[in-house]
Fold this sequence. Notes:
By secondary structure, the protein is α+β, with helices and mostly antiparallel strands. It has a single domain (2-180), classed as 3-Layer(aba) Sandwich (Aminopeptidase), CATH 3.40.630.30. Helices cover 35% and strands 24% of the residues. The protein has helices at 9-26, 99-115, 127-136, 161-166, 168-180; strands at residues 2-5, 39-44, 50-58, 83-91, 120-126, 142-143, 154-160. A 7-stranded mixed beta sheet has the order 1-2-3-4-5-7-6, sandwiched between helices. β4 (83-91), α2 (99-115) and β5 (120-126) form a beta-alpha-beta unit. α2 crosses α5.
Amino acid sequence: MDFVKIQTQKDLERYCDIWLPVWIENGYELESYITKGIERFIFRSNSGEDIGCFEFNPYYFNCSPVNEDFPFHHFPILQNKKVMELDKFVIKSEYQGSLKQLLEALNFISIYAINNKFDYVIGLVNLHLYEIGTERFNVPFNKLIDREYSSNKYVPTMLEIKALKGSKFGQRAMKKYIQLV
């Protein structure tokens, strides 16, 4: 699988063609803000087809827009830490049954967070993705509340990078990355 960083207007249009239909189909709220330092990626199959996308937003403790959807700023552990928000993590519906592609995307996200020396990754994660990540792949996500968040079935989630590095999942991701470099 190939990961492409969004750098051109054409890339951005492809990115929007992936996440917008899924957001609308699921009834998620469409957002209209841009955060300085945002990085967006598309992931593609080996044959070059766009499969999904995600974006990394820098998280600012008291003023990030995600705090309007869930009060991450009520968790003091995030204050004065290097935190990124994982957002718009989408896999096109025709590819959603592929655990291999989901695993590769989670590996990429993990290595990105480790290489960029983040302390935490936060996000409002789709309940299905959260369950597969924790139960099937043993990603050490921390659920921040004990119930589903909102009618859209988001799970407010925090991933401590130190715990990720020490986990079996993180060790496998780093080993795979080292083999690729």
